[in-house]
Amino acid sequence: MKKTLFILLILALITSCKPKAPAYNITGYFEGATDSTEFFIQKRVSGKVVTVDSAIAIAGRFVMKGGSVEYPEMVTLTGKNIRGALSFYIENSDINVKGHIDSLFNAVVEGSKTHNEYINLIKSLEPLNKKFSELYSQYREANQAGDKEKSETIEKQLDDLQKEMREVQISFIRDNPASFVAPAVLRNVNYDLEADEIEALINGLDTTVKKVQIIKDLEARVEVMKKVMVGQKAPDFELNDPDGNPVNLYSKVGKTKLLLIDFWASWCGPCRLENPNVVKIWKEFNKKGFDVFGVSLDRPGEKDKWLQAIKDDQFTWTHVSDLKYWDCEAAKLYAVNAIPANFLLDESGIIIARNLRGDDLYNKVSELLGEK
Questions:
Q1: Rounded Cα gap, residues 295 and 286, in angstroms
Q2: Do 72 and 63 meet the contact criterion of CB atoms below 8 Å apart?
Q3: Phi and psi dihedrals of 74, rounded to 5?
Q4: Residues contacting residue 129 through CB under 8 Å, at least 6 positions apart
Q5: Does 245 share its domain with 358?
Q6: Closest CA to 67 of 84, 79, 50, 81
Q7: Are 68 and 50 in the same domain?
Q8: Burial of 71 by CB count in 10 Å (0-12 exposed, 13-18 middle, 19+ buried)?
Q9: Same domain, 154 and 271
Q10: Is residue 44 included in any domain, yes or no?
């Protein structure tokens, strides 16, 4: 009997000394919520919305307890039959969420260190975002009024502001290598960075942060980007023209001194604003050795919009598309995840410049064709 009690005592000690697995405990209070209001924590996985946890409110309060996450990540709090949502960083800690049922997005989140880091970054960007919004309104007004000089001046100011906002975010990544906010910030700014710049920022992150899926995806993107850097031979691809005829890139390479692969879409506002610049350059330099190969990322079933945009924007060069939107095979091959995007090729198909717009594209083409 004593032996049995001794064994039971040892087992109890082992059990009591076992560390608790990390978990999150979310306590929420939303004024206006009824006893039947159901709340959900959701996230996106492979493009699909997945419910992580849920709870039904009692007197406006709910608790989600005992669940865990591998690392801090952005999730969304929603309510059944309730408009709006709250995005916040969940982590294994005691988290309190408080707000009103009519404005979930304004709820206050406490207890998540990662969310605090995120909020501080957002606050640091607020003055720049406000200025950008004001300038953009002026830009639209100038465009509608046909004031080209003013719109061009404001456009340059907007570009400068975007660069400033990007630098703030890059500084955050460098200054906070252990923050799980850094991967999302890097995903946001990577569109404007070269492969070596993205790689350097990734290498500066802590080992634990590098394990998140966003970073793994960016590492894979860097490998693709390296294949389409300046100095590399442009990969060939084949897509259908508006008549359904297959056209490969290298049927155009070598037919002219310079060939611009132009990724765009009829639904892309910035693309449509840039298109007149490309048309202007084509008209001035086509007979001197410049041509364009247009690749559209228009949506499935929207061929008519693609064709109408070609007509409206007065394009006269070769156009191709698989009408797969962001699943466009050529876009994937060239690591294009934002448009407009372009690659300037020489007669041999070597990439000599990329993502040049407006005056930068004009000046480059003029320089290479001996106009300056």
A1: 18
A2: no
A3: -75, 130
A4: 165
A5: yes
A6: 50
A7: yes
A8: middle
A9: no
A10: yes
Whole-angstrom Cα distance, residue 293 to residue 91?
Answer: 47
For residues 302 and 295, give the distance between their C-alpha atoms in angstroms, rounded to a whole number: 15
Mean predicted lDDT score pLDDT of the chain: 91
pLDDT at 5 over 50: no
Residue 297: helix, strand or coil by DSSP? coil
| Domain stop point among 111, 129, 163 | 111
Q: Same structural domain for residues 292 and 217?
A: no
- pLDDT computed for residue 9 by the predictor: 40
Question: Residue 51 domain-assigned?
Answer: yes
Task: Write down the pLDDT at residue 371.
Answer: 58
Q: Give me the percent of the chain exceeding a pLDDT of 90.
A: 80
CB 97 within 8 A of CB 86: yes
Query: Is the pLDDT at 149 greater than 50, yes or no?
Result: yes
**Cis preceding-peptide flag for 22 (omega within 30 of 0):** no
**Strand extents, DSSP E, 81-160:** 86-90, 94-100, 108-110
Residue 176, in any domain of the structure: yes
**What phi, psi does 310 have (nearest 5°)?**
-60, -45
The answer as to whether 133 is a domain residue is yes
- 278 plus 364 within the same structural domain: yes
Q: Quote the CA–CA distance of 260 and 278 in Å, as a whole number.
A: 9
- Beta strand ranges found along 133-248 (DSSP E): 238-240, 246-248
d(CA 182, CA 218): 12
Query: What's the average model confidence in pLDDT over 345-364?
Result: 94
Please name the amino acid found at residue 312.
D
User: Percent of the chain at pLDDT above 70?
Assistant: 94
Question: Is the domain of 188 the same as that of 306?
Answer: no
Measured CA to CA, the distance from residue 331 to residue 347 in angstroms comes to 22
Point out the domain boundary residue: 192, 226, 260: 226
Q: Give the residue numbers spanning the domain of 214.
A: 115-226
- Say whether pTM exceeds 0.85: no
Which CATH number covers residue 63? 2.60.40.1120
Q: How many domains is the chain partitioned into structurally?
A: 3
- Residue 19: is the preceding peptide bond cis (ω within 30°)? no
